[in-house]
Amino acid sequence: MTMTPEAFLDALMQIPGLVNPIVSPNGRWVAWTWFRVGPAADVFVAPTDGSRPPTRLTETPENTFVVSWTPDSTAVIVEEDKGGNERAQLFRVDVKRPGVMVPLTEPDPHYYVRGGQLHPNGRWLVYGANYDVETAQEIEPTLIYRHDLVTGERLVLARPQRPGYIVPQLNLQGTHILYPRKDLHPAGTQIWLVDIEGRDDREILNLGPTVKIEASWFPDGQRVLFLAEAKTHRRLGIWEMRTEKITWLLDDPQRNIEYAFVPDNSSKIVLVEIVQARVRASLLDPKTHTEFVLPQIEGNLIPLAPIDPTETEWVGQYYSARQPADLVRFSLDAIHPERFVSLTRIWERTPLRPSDLAPAEDFRWRSVDGLEIQGWLYRAHQPKGTIVYIHGGPTAHSEDRFSVQIQFFVSQGFNVLDPNYRGSTGFGLAFQEKIKEDGWGGREQDDIRTGIEALLARGIAQPGKVGVTGTSYGGYSSWCAITRWPTDIVAAAAPVCGMTDLVVDYQTTRPDLRPYSEEMLGGSPEQIPQKYYERSPINFVHNIKGKLLIVQGGRDPNVTPENVRAVRAALERAGIPYELLVFEDEGHGISRPANQKTLYLRLVEFFSGAFQ
Question: pTM for the full model?
Fold first, then answer.
């Protein structure tokens, strides 16, 4: 399709970005959050039978995300913050009353709310918050609260001792709450159980202080499905409340189970494996241990929940680089994309077709120690340069998935490499844990550099015409690249919300993220000051020879603007020129459509100029 650059970008941005789809307990509805459908993200809902187009439940000037369904499947709980500051207020929105947001918690809280589920009695709201109701002060640990929506009383049900990202899970019956703790070690997670009255708070799953465990409820509210790390893989088990017995279902080093859950209306366990960054899903019967593996198709398909009593018809999420994330109805008897029923009707929102989008090509190379690294390569027709787009996390991975930013780069003549460096998920637990051998700023940065060298060696990239960008850890990696490597490897960098001084980042970030820094680097700044110094790009800005564009969200609570203030002072002391683009109404990442358009056009202009 022939368009001007701005017109093509507008067409790309008409395609919404879908996150966090949740099927209602009765299986009749699916709710999700869409970006790029207004000035900020909003919540939509659609019937799972595909009988009606999506209904917009919220329309606000701030990002609004779906959190949970009410037990009776008539309403959703949503959260909304201010300018991306992540200090969210919770609301109830009934499916039959779209646009009416009933406030449940206070506006503009000075603490962070985690989760939010309504009790079956319709009166109690369960969530986590790093807030002490007795002193009315923000604290570091996240406490588990039962909030009475009639009287306003907030009862503390559980008090973890150390900070951590804690989202409590109330069972469907409303009797008990599951939640994780990180009291023993920053690298480990234990699972605790507390009753709805807060009388019995106890640890139920602990496989060692440094072992991570993830857990969720079975619909019966009596069994807990959990994934526990072993040395090389994750094991799947069931814990029973009545007997406190553990039954192991899967313990196979050859399988890379990313996550598992039981839909509220199902008897099957949904297993989602990631094999070489591609989805492989299956349905496991916990009684017979029989497993139905979904066939490999073009693109990625994740089952979400059945929508009929026989559990033959399902709702799933379907996506690839040329298929924007869609919610589809499909039959287990015939899993063929051409038979999928789109619930979002996403292709009705853009004049573009799949053929207008660049495919993701599997690209591999060897790093400095011989480790094989994978990435996704997107090729432009007449390339004028190459952009390395580095994912965040780092405990995450890039997929064969539609990206407005990558597709726009390709349309403007840039090849794009999206690398899955060591530390990424999707390649097994051993690969994921390798980043800890060096800590942040170690050989995972060499994985990125050797990827660029592989592009150069194969004639896909040209010396002096390679740039790097990314958000969060991708921003940090962009800083590492421009402060470490010569311009024939990296000629320009555009870090977005990236850490510059790891000590400043540790001191100013959200309290629940500090254990992650300690896990990844091997300790706190007080314990290992030299490593924090060596791995902080701010201390090496004098090495910068290429072009630099710094991008930041003004309300970012994760990688705070203090990172930018500190590095600007260092750049000016060293006499290093740079450009700065700050979005005052954004948090961690640039999400508003108007700001995204400004950013993407600016990035194309920046890299084009740097490569001339």
Answer: 0.95
